[in-house]
C-alpha cells in the first residue's frame, strides 16, 4: 500500500489544533460570562423600572417643587427611551458608578467596599467550619451506611435543613450570649474597641493580626464565632450530604474492590483513593456553598447586627434606596460568576482529564 504524506500546511494545522482548541474554550467561557452578566444587568434594570418606587422623589424629597422634580428627572436620564437608559446603566456599572445612596449620601460603590469585607470574613470562616467538619462527617456516614454513625450524621444534616436560621440565631444569642456569656453580642466588636486599629483589609480578624492587637483580635473572635458557627452548620449539612452521596458512588466502584484485594489498608482505600476522586466534584459543591453564604447570609447579618452586604441591602430596600439595592445585587451576581469561573479552574487543576 502506498502511504500518503501530509502536506506542511496540514501538519501545521494538526500541531496547532490544541492551541486553537484552548482559544475556543477560552472564548466560550468569556462569552458565557459576558452573557450572564448582560442578563443580570438587564434583569436589575427592568426591576428598577417596574418597582413602585419613584427614584426622583427618593432623590429630591416629597416636598420638592415641580421644577426641581423635572430637572432631577432629566438629570437621571428618565426622559430618554428605555434602550438609551439601559445603555447608560451598563456604562455606569462597567465604570463602577452605581449612583449615590439615599440612605448614606455616599457613592454606593464606597458603601459596598466598606461592608463587603465583613460579609467576606463571616462567610469565609463559616465555609472553613463547614468544610473541616462536613467532609469527614460525610465520609464516615458513607463508610458506615445504614448504621448509627450514618444515622447521626443524616439527622444532623436534616436538622440543619429544617430549622429556620433566624430561630437558631435568636436561640444562640439567648443561650450563649444572654445566659452563659460565652460569646460576644451583636456587631463585630464591642463599641469601645471600634475604630482603634487601622483598616487594611476591612476584615477585623486580619487587621488586628496585622496590628498585633490581641485584645481586639479575641474580642472580634468572640463576636464572630456564633454567627459563623450557625452559617457553618448550614454549610456542614449541605457539604456532608453531598460528600456522603459522592462517597457511596465511589465505594461501589471496581477500583475500590481491586485496591482492597491488593491488601491496601482500609484507611488508605477510603481517605486516599475514594476521597481523592470525590474531591473533584466536591470542589464545585464547596465553591457554590461559599457563594451562597456570601449572598444568602441576610437573616444572620440582621439578627447579629453584622454590618455586611446582606444587612446593607436589607436596610436599603426598607428605605427605598434603589441605587444601593441594585448595586448590591450586581455585586452578588459578579461574585457568583467569579466563583463559578474559579470552580472551573480548580476542577481542571485537580483533574488532569479535564485539561
Question: Can I get a quick summary?
Answer:
The protein has helices at 8-50, 55-60, 66-75, 82-94, 108-143, 148-162, 165-179, 204-211, 214-251, 254-261, 266-296, 298-303, 309-318, 322-350. With 355 residues, the protein is mainly alpha-helical. It is found in: Cell membrane.
List the helices and strands and how they pair.
Blueprint: H1 8-50, H2 55-60, H3 66-75, H4 82-94, H5 108-143, H6 148-162, H7 165-179, H8 204-211, H9 214-251, H10 254-261, H11 266-296, H12 298-303, H13 309-318, H14 322-350
Helix pairs in contact: 1-14, 5-6, 5-9, 5-11, 5-14, 6-9, 7-9, 8-9, 9-11, 11-14, 13-14
Which key features would you list for this structure?
single chain, about 350 residues, mainly alpha, MetI-like fold, 2 domains, about 75% helix, about 0% strand, globular, MetI-like, transport, ABC transporter permease, cell membrane
How many strands, which pairing sense, and closed or not: the largest β-sheet?
none
The CATH class designation of the largest domain is Mainly Alpha
Beta content comes to: under 5%
Q: In the CATH hierarchy, what is the architecture of the largest domain at level 2?
A: Orthogonal Bundle
Low-confidence stretches: 10-16
CATH-assigned fold name of the largest domain = MetI-like fold
For the secondary structure, the number of strands is 0
How would you classify the helix and strand content by structural class?
mainly alpha
Helix content: over 70%
What characteristic shape results from the CA principal axes? globular
Encode the helix/strand succession as letters: HHHHHHHHHHHHHH
The Rg value, from CA coordinates, equals 26 Å
Tally of alpha and pi helices: 14
Instruction: Provide mean pLDDT, rounded.
Output: 81
The CATH superfamily of the largest domain is identified as MetI-like
Amino acid at each position: 500500500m502506498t502511504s500518503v504524506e501530509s502536506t506542511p500546511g496540514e501538519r501545521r494545522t494538526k500541531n496547532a489544533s490544541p492551541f486553537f482548541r484552548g482559544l475556543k474554550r477560552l472564548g466560550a467561557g468569556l462569552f458565557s460570562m459576558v452573557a450572564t452578566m448582560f442578563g443580570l444587568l438587564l434583569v436589575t434594570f427592568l426591576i428598577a423600572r417596574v418597582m413602585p418606587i419613584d427614584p426622583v422623589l427618593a432623590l429630591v424629597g416629597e416636598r420638592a417643587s415641580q421644577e426641581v422634580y423635572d430637572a432631577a428627572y432629566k438629570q437621571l436620564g428618565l426622559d430618554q427611551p428605555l434602550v438609551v437608559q439601559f445603555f447608560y446603566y451598563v456604562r455606569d456599572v462597567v465604570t463602577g458608578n452605581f449612583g449615590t445612596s439615599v440612605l448614606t449620601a455616599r457613592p454606593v460603590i464606597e458603601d459596598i467596599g466598606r461592608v463587603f469585607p465583613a460579609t467576606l470574613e463571616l462567610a469565609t470562616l463559616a465555609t472553613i467550619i463547614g468544610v473541616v467538619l462536613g467532609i469527614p462527617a460525610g465520609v464516615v456516614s458513607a463508610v458506615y451506611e445504614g448504621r448509627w454513625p450514618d444515622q447521626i450524621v443524616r439527622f444532623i444534616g436534616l436538622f440543619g435543613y429544617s430549622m429556620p436560621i433566624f430561630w437558631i440565631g435568636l436561640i444562640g444569642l439567648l443561650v450563649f450570649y444572654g445566659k452563659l456569656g460565652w460569646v460576644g453580642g451583636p456587631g463585630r466588636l464591642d463599641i469601645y474597641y471600634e475604630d482603634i486599629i487601622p483598616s487594611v483589609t476591612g476584615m477585623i480578624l486580619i487587621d488586628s493580626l496585622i496590628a498585633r492587637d490581641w485584645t481586639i483580635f479575641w474580642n472580634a473572635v468572640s463576636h464572630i464565632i456564633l454567627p459563623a458557627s450557625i452559617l457553618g452548620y448550614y454549610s456542614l449539612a449541605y457539604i456532608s450530604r453531598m460528600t456522603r452521596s459522592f462517597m457511596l458512588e465511589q465505594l461501589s466502584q471496581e477500583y475500590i474492590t481491586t485496591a482492597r484485594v491488593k491488601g491496601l489498608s482500609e484507611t488508605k482505600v477510603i481517605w486516599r483513593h475514594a476521597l481523592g476522586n470525590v474531591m473533584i466534584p466536591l470542589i464545585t459543591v464547596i465553591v457554590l456553598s461559599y457563594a451562597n453564604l456570601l449572598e444568602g447570609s441576610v437573616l444572620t447579618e440582621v439578627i447579629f447586627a453584622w454590618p455586611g452586604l446582606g444587612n446593607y441591602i436589607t436596610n436599603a430596600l426598607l428605605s427605598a434606596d434603589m441605587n444601593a439595592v441594585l448595586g448590591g445585587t450586581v455585586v452578588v451576581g459578579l461574585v457568583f460568576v467569579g466563583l463559578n469561573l474559579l470552580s472551573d479552574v480548580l476542577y481542571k487543576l485537580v483533574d488532569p482529564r479535564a485539561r
